[in-house]
Structure formats: structure tokens, C-alpha cells
Amino acid sequence: MGAVNGVCYGVLGDNLPSRSEVVQLLKSQGIGAMRIYYPDKEALDALRGSGIAVIVDVGDSGAVANLANNPSAAADWVRDNVEAYWPSVIIRYITVGNELPAGDMGLILPAMQNVHKALVSAGLSSSIKVSTAIKMDVVANTFPPSHGVFRPDLQRFMVPIARFLANTVSPLLVNVYPYVSYRENPRDISLNYATFQPGTTVRDDGSGLTYTNLFNAMVDAVYAALEKAGTPNVRVAVSETGWPSAGGFAATAENAMNHNQGVIDNVKNGTPKRPGPLETYVFAMFNENQQTGDETRRHFGLFNPDKTPAYPITPYPRPAVQSIGVCYGMVGNDLPSRSEVVQMYVSMGINRMRIYNPDREALDALRNSGIDLILDAGGFDTVSYLAASASNAASWVHDNISPYYPAVNIKYIAVGNEVVGGTTESILPAMRNVNSALAAAGIGGIKVSTAVKSDVIANSYPPSAGVFAYPYMNGVAQYLASTGAPLLANVYPYFAYAGNPREISLNYATFQPGTTVRDDGNGLTYTNLFDAMVDCIYAALEKAGAGNVRVVVSESGWPSAEGFGASMDNARAYNQGLIDHVGRGTPKRPGQMEAYIFAMFNENQKTGAATERHFGLFYPNRSPVYQIAFPN
């Protein structure tokens, strides 16, 4: 997960804008994620096709109790509130309970389990995660942060919840309010420290880390508690944070602006304990005049009900390159060092990378970089080795994963890249063995897949006719569905165009306007070849009984020289088009998608056609081959 700046959309007011107006306001401000506190059908309808990701709360403790006590109620809830909207509404998490009191916390885990099972049955558990939102008072000993531990009286609830989150690769949602801590203890906590202003440095002797703001210290106290619960790989997502602009002690527009601007600016950096992108939701979108409790509760909004800002905030950054990665090939004798390459990714805001073997120097350079990684296991021989025995896979995981994860955020392991011939029969057993080895090592956050060429699809036109050309792919697809892993696919409109320029227009292949293609099989309209190729894979997955498997485009690109249609102008048009397009998804699967451009560099030792040496965005001296604008 890349950095996320979201807002909480509360509706406790009698003077608030309509749901559709709110969604338009979010889009105009570049806010790409939001939280709602119950499955508000009008809000969910307004979110269709918006590209805004949403956290949906199930409701109050009564709703949680119903889901905990009745599995069929959970299935009905998922049908009515998730399946009815997905994927046109990008539901990121389902929150089972918001700050439930100790007396109700026993309901959380069974409710989460029932909702998760319903998502599994619906084929959505890989895309939508189930969690709960806790208050900071669930954590004791929050100073220094390294002493954080779940409260003794709540450990019987929180430790099993944390284990569930680890097993399902879900984050813990935490409502983090430096304002409340400051208000309760202004003698020991400075206002500057609480509002991201300079002047305070706090060292945690337990961890050796230094803190310059209270927010990060509070988040790291939660991470310390998760470690003590035996779940160090569970990620924290800050599901609420904010500061009131009026109505109480230190509640001023200036303090609110400083705190919330600090939160917005902080997400790309993370915390001292977990550097890298952080997911955070500011409470709240509006000042809500029907909020109960003390007067400050009615003054947490970034906006007034008339949609004017409550105070100046630098506009939210547009979504970072969280869904675009770049493949880092190393087949050259003049390339920069691994550490220099990682610094290039970081400096350009490229948050995802693919490497084609477990290169130790590259993995070391990636530690704590915040870059998500696709790690290829290796070549065809490695696939056969992993398939041969469980012990081989265990040794591979021991040598190549355990020494690096989670400091290196390995997201997927690709068991084979464009495997052909008899080795294709080794893909599925190799994937099974690697998954078993990860489980035995206690690593639950990495998905195992394989990367395929587009020629595994037959009947690629129209997209709805797509079907797998080889029987082994049906087994692979069904296995991915069972593990919640995506299918990695290398999608190259360039090769389709170069092979058939009479039938495929250059504009259609390079995201340029002028071509519209209707698929009579599904009624969808296509304006670029990339979408058609991806949707063809989705059609094949559906026919294999794995329609809910997500496609991750693990390679795509266009050469800039040495071949038909290979020019800088075409390469720039295609790759810029891909960068700009991924936030919208495809006609069949609208919403943000994940894609990796091939490649970072022109690699002078690539074999094959001359174009193979000219797919890079950069020359080996790190100068750009042509100008490309990444969103951030």
C-alpha cells in the first residue's frame, strides 16, 4: 500500500451538501480515499466510478452483534452492501466496530470472521480486507513508544484480533488523536510537538529512535503493542485523526491547520519505526452541527457545510505513483549501483519495483525504502527446483525472504516469468510449495503468483471472447483464487501493434484519441488496446472459474528505438498514457489498477531483437530517454 491521504465523511448535520456534491468536492481536492460510518447507499451510489477508495463501517455495536451471532447475516450484509457496489465502488476495508467499549469487544472477532468468510464465498477476500477501529486507550504504556502494549484487561480480545489480521493480511485501524493527549496533559506535551511544528525532539531509549511529533510516537506505540502480541507484520492504518478549530482548549483554526497539514505532509514519510508510506484519514470532512458530546466535536471539519474551507490547507497531493511501478532489469554492464537505483525510485516517488531474481545487493538497498516489490524467484530452473520438493521451497524462502522481510516490503513472489514448454507443469506445484514455506516461516503478507505472456490467451478479440489457451492455466487461476493472489500478466500493446499495424491503429495502441471499439459480447466500449488486452485476461479468468482473481500488469512498455513503431514519441505517448490511465482501470474492471512499466533502464546486454535494448525510461547515466511526468 502506498501513501494514502483520506478523510472521514460524517453525516451528523442538518445542513450538509448532498452525497454527490461531497464526492465531487473530494475529487476536486484530489482526495482519493474516504471513510463512511455505515453502508450509506446514497453515498455508495455517488462513489460509483469515482476512483475514490472507501472504508465502510458496518455500523454500531448492535450491527456488530448481529454479524457476530449470525453467519447468514454476514453473508446478507456482504451481498447487500459490498457485492451490490463492487468493483465500481472501490471498497478497501470493512470496519467491524468503531471504538467499541470493553464490554462489547468480545463481539469483534466472531463478527470479523463471519464477514471475512462471506467475502471469501463472494470471491472478494483478496481485494477487500476486514478490520476494526480502536481507540488509543486500548494501548497501555504509550511513552516511550517502544513500551507500548495492549492493555492487560483487553489482551484476551486484542491478541486474537491481531492474529486474525496477520492471517488475513489486513491492517489494524487506529483512531489517533494527538489533540486529546495534549488537552489532557499540556504540562508535559508541548503544543509544537502535538501539531507537527519544529522545536521538540524526544528520544526513545528503548528503541533508539527519535521523535519530532506526537502523532508518529502514538502510531509507533501501536506497532510496539502489535510486536508484543506476536504480530509484527500487521500494518497500522490511521482511521481517524484530527484537531478541532473551535469550541475548547487549544481548539483554534491555526492549531487545526498545523496539525492536519502536518498529517497530510507526513504520510509519505511514515514513522521512525515504520518509514515509508502511511495510510491516514483526517476526521472530518465537515463541521457537523449534530455531533454530540463537547463542543469541539462539532468543529473537526476541514470544510464548512457550504463547502468553503474551515481554514487554509495546502491541497491534498494527487494520488502518488502508488499503482504504477517500474521493472528494474539488470542486464547491462554500465548500469548504476543498486543503491543509486533505489534512490532514483525514492526521489521520483516510484513506490513499486519488480526485480527478476533475489539479488541480494538490491534487496539490501531496498530495506526500509517504502518501495513495494515484486520478487521473481528466478528462471525456469528455479521453478523446477521449487516444484521438486517442499524442502527446496523452504530453503529458498529461508535464504531469500526471511532475511529481508518485512524491512523489504515484498508484495508478490513471481514463480516464473513467461514460462513455456514442459516447465509450465511445474508452476502450480512450485507455487504451492512456496506458499507452504511462507506459512511455515510465519510470513503472511506475501502473495505467490506467476507472470504470464498475453499468448496464454486464445480468442483475444473481442475481449469478452478471451479464454486460456493452455489447460494448466485453469489450475493456476483456480489456485490464485483460493489464495487471494493476483495473476501477474505481461501486457504489451506494442507487440500486438507491430504484428498487425493494418488492423490496429497507432493511436489505439498508444492511448491517443481517435479510435473506439465496441465489444458486442459484453456491451463495453474500448478506446485503447491496453484495456482490451487486460479485459481479455479477465474474461479468461471468468471462464476458468476464477472471475474474482485480480490482474496485476507485471510488465508493459514501448521501445524508443531500433524497430517498427519504436520511437521516442511513441514510447513517451504510451508510457505517459499508462501512468495517467491506471487510476481509472478498465471498462470491465473500473477503479485503480496496478501496473509496472518495463523498464527502468536501457539494458545493453539484453538478447533478442534490437528493440529489447531500448525499453528504458532512463539511460544508464540516469538521464531520461524522454520526458515522463509521474503524478507526484
TrEMBL record:
BP GO terms, sorted: carbohydrate metabolic process
Example GO molecular function: glucan endo-1,3-beta-D-glucosidase activity
Keywords: Glycosidase, Hydrolase
Species name: Oryza sativa subsp. indica (Rice)
Protein name listed in UniProt: Uncharacterized protein
Alphabetical list of PROSITE patterns matching this protein: GLYCOSYL_HYDROL_F17
Tree of life domain: Eukaryota
Protein family per UniProt: Belongs to the glycosyl hydrolase 17 family.
Keyword Hydrolase: yes
